[in-house]
Amino acid sequence: MTNKETEQNATLAEVESHVPEQLHPILEAAFKNGKQLIIAVIAIVAVTAIYAGVSAYNQRALTSAQAKLGAILIEAAGEDKIAKLEALLADVPSAAKSAVLLELAQSSMNNGQYDKAVGYWNQLAGTTDDDLAFVARLGKAKCLTLAGKGAEALTELKDLVGIAPAAFTIPTYRQLAVAAELAGDKAEALAAYKKLGEQSLPDKPFVDFKIAQLEAE
């Protein structure tokens, strides 16, 4: 390796240490063309500056949104809380959107605005594909039940019991049993209570009572 190549490799390593990893292949390609070296370095430094500026802006926006959300949760309640959360949702960074939607869904549900809550649970389910999406669908089903829409809730819950993570099995069957009774589907309600009866529950006497009640009907 020549002294020139050694110097270029040392320079490349130094520049790479200050550049996001995803830009390294571009940087290395540029260094292979000695005639364009100065132009390439200038361009990469400019891109890095823009990248750093955007990242810093995004972080500031996220921190600001988190602070505003915290203030709303502490200071506001009822309709005022919902209105402020809706205003925040309009310009919140995508990284904080799920948190705002979760609070909006819960606040709307607690305020008896079940149709609005269902809409926010749906939005939340669409922003993620992890356990939070399952929680959002479970929240939607609970809102439908509270709104007296047992049949709609039952349809949602019958789908959820097939994909419920272990930690959510019991609450899913609980909601399914309640929704099925509301919808007048005694067979589905009985099956759900029997699934619950297989678990060690603090309210097992109540579950056993519901099983006996439904079997007698």
Number of DSSP-assigned strands: 0
CATH C-level of the largest domain? Mainly Alpha
Q: Structural class per helix/strand content? A: mainly alpha
Count of DSSP-assigned helices: 11
Helical percentage: over 70%
- CATH architecture tag of the largest domain: Alpha Horseshoe
In angstroms, what is the radius of gyration? 28 Å
The CATH homology group name of the largest domain: Tetratricopeptide repeat domain
How many angstroms separate the termini? Answer: 89 Å
What is the count of structural domains? 2
Output the keywords.
mainly alpha; 2 domains; Serine Threonine Protein Phosphatase 5, Tetratricopeptide repeat
Describe this structure in words.
- This protein has 217 residues and is mostly helical.
- It folds into two domains: 1-75; 128-217, Serine Threonine Protein Phosphatase 5, Tetratricopeptide repeat (Alpha Horseshoe), CATH 1.25.40.
- Helices cover 79% and strands 0% of the residues.
- It has eleven helices and no strands.
- The chain has helices at residues 3-16, 24-31, 37-75, 78-89, 94-110, 114-127, 131-146, 150-160, 169-183, 186-197, 204-216.
- Helix 5 packs antiparallel against helix 6 and helix 7 (131-146) packs antiparallel against helix 8.
- The longest helix has 39 residues, at 37-75.
- The radius of gyration is 28 Å and the shape is elongated.
